[in-house]
Design a protein that fits this description.
61 residues; mainly alpha; 3 helices; 2 strands
């Protein structure tokens, strides 16, 4: 999924996704050429980590 799809999936503004990228605090991302994409499994794992209070590396949404 791309950044707008991630924002919709997680329920946050698109600017939050861009902030996560710049701070390296969001879900694992994959660069495909000039595009950044996210695997749903990586996003779900990141959300699970955050909800359990583990070391997710995530900031406030």
């Amino acid at each position: 999924m791309d950044a707008p799809a991630l924002a919709e999936y997680v329920g946050v503004p698109l600017t939050s996704v861009y902030r996560w990228n710049s701070q390296s605090t969001g879900p694992r991302r994959i660069r495909v050429g000039k595009y950044v994409r996210y695997r749903r499994a990586d996003v779900d794992a990141w959300l699970d980590q955050r909800s359990k209070g583990g070391p997710a590396g995530g900031g406030a949404a």
